[in-house]
Amino acid sequence: MALRISIRTLLLLMGLLTPGPAQVPVPAAAPRGFWALPENLTVVEGAAAELRCGVSAPGSAVQWAKDGLLLGPDPRIPSFPRYHLEGDPTKGEFHLHIEACDLSDDAEYECQVSRSETGPELVSPRVILSVLVPPRVLQLTPEAGSTVTWVAGQEYEVSCVSGDAKPAPDITFLRSGQTISDISSNVNEGSQEKLFITKATARVTPQSSDNGQLLVCEGSSPALDTPIKVSVTMNVLFPPGPPVIEWPGLDEGHVRAGQNLELLCTARGGNPPATLQWLKNGQPVSTAWGTEHAQAVARSMLVMIVRPEDHGARLSCEAQNSVSTGIQERGVTLQVTFPPSAITILGSASQSENKNVTLSCITKSSRPRVLLRWWLGWRQLQPTEETVMDGLHGGHISMSNLTFPARREDHGLSLTCEAFSEAFAKETFKKSLTLNVKYPAQKLWIEGPPEGQRLRAGTRVRLVCLAIGGNPDPSLTWYKDSRPVTEPRQPQEPRRVQLGSLEKSGSTFSRELVLVTGPSDNQAKFTCKAGQLSASTQLVIQFPPTNVTILANASALRPGDAVNLTCISVSSNPPVNLSWDKEGERLEGVAATPRSAPFKGSSAARSVLLRMSSRDHGHRVTCRAHSTELQETVSAFYSLNVLYPPEFLGEQVLVVTAVERGEALLPVSVSANPAPEAFNWTFRGYRLSPAGGPRHRILSGGALQLWNVTRADDGLYQLHCQNSEGTAEALVRLDVHYAPIIRNLQDPTEVNIGGSVDIVCTVEANPVLPGMFNWERLGEEEEDQSLEDMEKMSEGSTGRLRIQHAKLSQAGAYQCIVDNGVAPPARGLVRLVVRFAPHVEHPTPLTKVAAAGDSTSSATLHCRARGVPNIIFTWTKNGVPLDLQDPRYTEHTYHQGGVHSSLLTIANVSAAQDYALFTCTATNPLGSDHTNIQLVSISRPDPPSGLKVLSITPYSVGLEWKPGFDGGLPQSFQIRYEALETPGFLYVDVQPPQATTFTLTGLQPSTRYRVWVLASNALGDSGLAVKGSQISITTPGLHQPSGEPDYQLPTEEPAGPSGLPLLPVLFAVGGLLLLSNASCVGGFLWHRRLKRLAQGISEKTDAGSEEDRVRNEYEESQWTGDRDTRSSTVSTTDAEPFYPSMRDFSPQLPPTLEEVSYPRGLEEEAMAFPGHLYDEVERLYAPPGAWGPLYDEVQMGPYDLRWPEDKYEDPRGIYDQVAGDLDPMEPDTLPFELRGHLV
After folding, report:
1. Which residues span the membrane (predicted)?
2. Tens digits of per-residue pLDDT, 974-989?
3. Is the dihedral of CA 407, 408, 411, 413 positive or negative?
C-alpha cells in the first residue's frame, strides 16, 4: 500500500512538474479513462514493436512501466535510446514504440496515467511483449559439411544441437530425403535467461542406396521463416557384384598356340569399386585394373600370348573390396592346339659317289599329330620306317627313316622332309638339306714370272695355282722348299706374304700367292699341290746386305790411344763395296777377300786404324756398303767413347748479375766423360752444402741457384768439378745489384741568409751510376718547387745540391731521390733552414690592448716575430725593462718553425700603473727587432678600414673590410647605405656579427649608392671615418654584365620594389613601439645587470689558435724552461683549425631607415656612472683583435716582411690550445650605462 501511494505521489509530481507531450491537455468536460488498451504482442528479435495506449485523462501525465520500472513521461525516453512514444498527445495517443527488439525487451508493460484534478490515477492491464529469438546455428556431429564414411547395414548415432533460441526449436533428421523416425530430443537452458537449446539424437542404419546422399539436420522455430539446415554427405561402403569374363568367340577355352588372347573381366557395383586380379593356375599374372566411378564398374584386361605349355591351364578373375566378406571368382580352362615347333633331320647328306645315304626325320611335339613324307628335288622318296610317340603338353612326336644311293647327277639337289595335318591345312612344315656327292679334280698348273728372270729384293711377285673339276672343291696348298707357306701371325711383323683364299669360276679353281721378295727367296722352289697333283717354279732374287756390323779391338779409349775398327757386311747378291768416313771425313782402310754367305749370296770386310783425342768423344765413324748394280747403300756407325777429365768450355759464364731479394743462377758449361761425379761450390772459403740450404740449391747439371739474394752474397764463387778421370776448377763472380739506401743526409741543413751551403746526400748502392741523383723541392705551389740558382753535382755515391747566396724563399723541405735502376728509388727528406734576423710583425689592430683599470681585471699582450734560430723576447714598460719576477706579470713563449710568439699577461691591471706603452723586443744571434703595444682603457671601437667591393650585380653587392681596434669589447658591424637619388639612409646588421664580408641585397639596377661600414661594441659606435670605411658604387643595368670576383658570393633578387613610401613609415612606427616597450622594463634590466657585474668574474683571454707551418722550419718541437717559473716556451707543429662560432648568428634583418632607427646608445655627456662600476667589469670574451687566423690565413713569406694591406681576417682563437677561455659574452651583456668611454 505504501509502495502504491509512493508511486501515485511520484506520478502526481511528475505530472505537475514535467511539461511536454506526455501530459494530456485539459479539454472541457472530457471523460476520464482508456479508450485504447495495450494487448499482448509477439515479435522476432530485431523487429520493431508498438504497444498502443489511448487515454482520455485531461491534465494528467502518461508514462509506461516495464516490469514495474517507470520509463518516465518524456516522449523520447532518454534512458532507453530505442524507446519513444508515438502518437498525438492532444488526442490522447501514447503508443510505446520499440526499435530493433532484443531479449531485454521481453517483459510485462503497462500504461499509467497520473492523478489529476479530474480524477485518480489510471493503470492499464499488464501486457506481455514476447521477443522470439531464432536459432543462429546448428551443430551437427559428425561435423557439418564433411563426408562421413559408413559401412552399409551397420548402425550409427548422429547428434544435432541448436544454438540459443526462444522458444526451443524443433529438430528433425532426413536421410536421403526421408524423415528418420528414431529420434530422441532434449531441451536445456541456454546461455542467457529465457533462451533454450535443443539437442536431438538419431540412430541411422545406412544402405547402399544412401551412398553419396545427404543426412540433413533441420531446425524450425516460430522465429524462423524457413528452417535452418546442416548436413553431412554419406559415403556408404558395400561389396561389389560377382566378376564376369567376356570370352572372344563361341568355343570357350579353345585357343591356338601363338594366339594373342585378350580377356576382359568386369565387376559392377561396390564402394569402393572392386579390386580385380587375374590368376593362372592359382598364381597371379595381372593385378592391373581400371575403375569407372560414375558407373561403379571395375574392369581388368588380361593380354597374353598362348603357348603350348598353356594347354589345360585355368585362368580365373577375382573381385573384392575393403568390405567384402569373401573373394568372388570366375574361371575358364584353356584347350591349346599347337603345331610342331621344329623338324630335325639326323644323318649326313654328304657322301662319295655310288654310296648309300641314311637319314632320319623327327618332329617336336604337336597337338594333334602330323604325318611325314620325303622329297629329293621334285621326286618323292619312300621312307623305310615311320614311328609316333607321346610328346610334351599332351601332344605327339612323329619320326621317319630313309635310305638311298648317291649319284653324281643328284649332286646339289634339295633333300626335304615335310610334316602335314588336317588341323594345319593352311600351313606346311619342312626341313631341307642339300645332297653333296664327292668326286676328284682333273688338271693342275702355276702361272707366274718366267724362270731365270732376275728380280730385285722387295719386288712384288704374284703366283697363281689353278685346277679344273672336283667335288668337294680341291684344296690348293702352297709350299716353299717343301715347307707350307703361311702368313705372319703377329700383326707387327711386315706382311711380306699374302696367301689368297680358294676361288671358283665355273669348274675352275684358283689360289693366289703374293710375295714381297727377300733374300730368303733367292733360288727357292715354290710348289702347289691338290690331292695327288702338284706343280713347281723357282725365283732368282738380287738383294743388298741386310745390315753392316762394326767391330772394335778396344772398348775403353783415352786421349792418345789407337783403335782398330773392322766393318763386316752380311750376305748380298751381287757383292758390295765397303768404305769408311768420320764426321764426313773419308778414311782409308784395308779390304778383305769376299766369302760365301746365306741365301746363296756373298759377304765382305774392311778395317781402319784411328788415334784418339778428347775432341773425338761422341764422334761417329761410319761404314757404308754400296751395291753398284742395285744402286743401294747400307750404313752403320760406331760412336767413339773417349774417357777424359772435366774441361770447361769457352762459353762458360764468368760474371752473373742479380738483383737483391731476387734469384741468381750461376751456370756451368763443362765437358767430361764420364759425367762429373760432383760439383762443389766454395764461397769465401766456405763450401756450400751439396744437399742445398735455405737459400741455395745445386742443380743436377752443377749450376748453383740462389734466391733471396743479398748484397752479402756478392763476390767470387769457386767451382770444383771431378770425375774418375780427373778434376777441373773455375771462378764465377756474382754481382748483386741492390736499391740505393741513403746513409747520410744532414737534416736540417742550416745557412745564413746570403751564404752558401751544400746539401749532401750519401748513399749505398750497386751499381753506382753517374746520373742516379735527383733533387726535388717540396711545396704546395709550382714556384715553390723550382730549383733555379741551385747546382746539382754527384761524385760516386755522393750527390750534392749546392745553394749559393741563400734566400729566404729557398728555405723549406727538399727531397734527395736516388735511382740506380733497381726499385725502389731511395728518397730522403732534408730541411734547409735559412737563418735570418728577427722581424717583429706590426698588425695595426694589435698595437692597442684595452682592459679595465680596476685592479681586478687582467690583460694579455701579444708579440709575434719571425726569425731563425729561435728568438728571445724581452719586454719594457715606458722604456724600463719589465720585472718578470713581479707576480702580476706572466710571460708564455711559443715557437713554431720560424714563427715565435710571446704572450705577456698582466694581472690586476691598474689604470695608474699599467696604462702605458709596452715594448716587445725579439733577439737572436743575427739581430733584433721590436714593436710597441699601448695598454689603454676599454672604449668604443675604431672605424673599420679598407672597405672594397668583391662582386656586384643589379640587385646586390659583395663587400669586404678590415676591422679596427675593438676597444677591448666584442664588436659587431653594420652597413649604412643610401641611394643618391633618394633621401634617407638604410642600415643592415652584419650576420654573423664578427664577419668581415657581407652581401648587401635589395638594391635596384642602374642606381648609384654610397655605402658605409660601422663598428660598435657595448660602449657605442665607431662613428664615420673620413675615408676607408665608405665607398660609392653604381649597380649595373639588367642588360649589362655584372662584376664578379674570383669566387661567387650568394646573391638574391629583391622580394619587391624598394623605395616605396610605405616602407619608411612602417619602420618608423615599429621603432617607436620598441622604444615605448624598452622604457617600461629599463629599470628592471638596469638593476639586474648591476647585480651581475658585482659578482667579480675574472678576465680570461682567448689565446689558442692554429699556427701555419712555415717553409723555414727550424725545430719540430722545443720546450724552454720558465724564466721565473711563470714564463714558458712551447712549440707545436699541429693545431686545430679555427672555425668562427655560430653562437651569435641570427637571420639577416631587413634594412632600417636612419630617420626612424632606435637609439644605439646614450651620448657620453648624457652618461652618469658610479665611480666603482667600471672597476668590476671583467672580460668573459676573447678580444676580437686577438691573434688567431690572422697569421694563419695571411701568407707572409720571409721575403715579404710587411703587414698585408688588403686582407684582414677575424683574429679570434689563435691560442685556443693555451688557455681554456670561456665563450665570448653577448654584446648586450654590458649594462646600458657602461656603453661609452670609461676613462
Report:
1. 1062-1086
2. 999 999 888 889 999 9
3. negative
